[in-house]
GntR family transcriptional regulator (Brachyspira pilosicoli), 243 residues
Amino acid sequence: MEIIDNTSRVQLYYQLYDILLNKIKSGDYKPNDLFPTENELIEKYKVSRITVRKAMDMLSQEGLISKKRGIGTFVKAQKIENNLASIIDFNDNMKNKGYSHSTKVITNKIVECNNNISEALSIPNNTKLINIERLRLMQNEPICLESANLIYDRCPEVLNRDFNNESLRTFIKDNYKIIWKHAKQKITAINTDKRISNILNIKKGDPILYIERVSYCTDNIPLEYLEAYYRADMYYFTVDLEY
């Protein structure tokens, strides 16, 4: 709700903070948008200046907004944590963090594997693959491009599905009874070329995080070769270590 409840036991500044936080997470206020002024918030929510300042201070302390002297307050781009201890579905990750999100399929077609994929998946060079490219968006802002290559003979119906709103891995698991067991991946920092930068809405040459991943199913059989390009200004990776 966007209404301040003066009869609630919850402090007014916290109610306002919660409203503004939800508007940021839902994408109503997008990264780099000019945030409403104190006067605008006072007028809209019928609260005091002290209440507005307390709510905005909380957002600022959480790194959600920042002030630029002489210009105003802006919504900051949020970095998404991706823990490397396990493979987390993009949709589940975004839902858990409370951010609006979507997927846009760019390509879904048959290709022949190159030497790199042939070696990674232990298959001949002329093996037919399905290449499916998906753009991941948070709050309507591109944050990641994934290019998955799957062995066509193992899951041919992937070509006929709409993965804008369906999980690729779940479809493969449910329809082909394929159990994903483990994966090996390599992470490097690279500079974007023209195509990737245009898709991710960043400048050519900007640094990004690049992942190569081979996923294995039952009996340690490699099935998927994935290349993923993550915006470095919106993603970071963590891993739990033990001594």
About this structure: The two ends are 47 Å apart (CA to CA). Helices lie at 12-26, 38-45, 49-61, 90-97, 115-121, 168-176, 194-200.
